[in-house]
Amino acid sequence: MPDPFTFDLVSPEKLLLSEDVEMVVVPGAEGDFGVLVGHAPLISALRPGVIDTYSGTSVDKRIFVAGGFAEVTGERCTVLAEEAVPVSDIDTGEAASRLSAAREAVGGADSETARSLAETELSVAESMVEAAKGTGA
What we know:
The protein is α+β, with helices and mostly antiparallel strands. 28% of the residues lie in helices and 43% in strands. It folds into 2 domains: 5-87, F0F1 ATP synthase delta/epsilon subunit, N-terminal (ATP Synthase, domain 1, Sandwich); 90-133. The protein has helices at 92-108, 112-133, and strands spanning 5-10, 15-21, 23-28, 31-35, 42-46, 49-55, 58-65, 68-73, 76-81, 84-86. The strands form 2 sheets. A 5-stranded mixed β-sheet has the order 2-1-9-8-5, with no helix packed on it. β8 and β9 form a beta hairpin. The radius of gyration is 16 Å and the shape is elongated.
């Protein structure tokens, strides 16, 4: 069993989680990556998806993040998330409504900037719906 290290999850509003974990899997912009104690230093952008924290060999917590950044050192992993919510707290109806609104926003975008923002929101909404369904993101 790996040694524990500190995992911190921070939103723009507050520190959401700070606890010792044995492993964390993060949805990096270039793909998911796992962190164990002693990991090489790393900074990565995040894509919308689910963070899994492990206690022993089982998933302890599943948290949806809309994006952000992760900083990894040998003894800590800190995620600065744009938005974060435990997967178990995602309301499937609200997630579906968010997805529908995002699709409408993409279709109604009247500039490149508006379209880019709408496509980002669409990606977040699609990932949130997938997470709510339990398929991961």
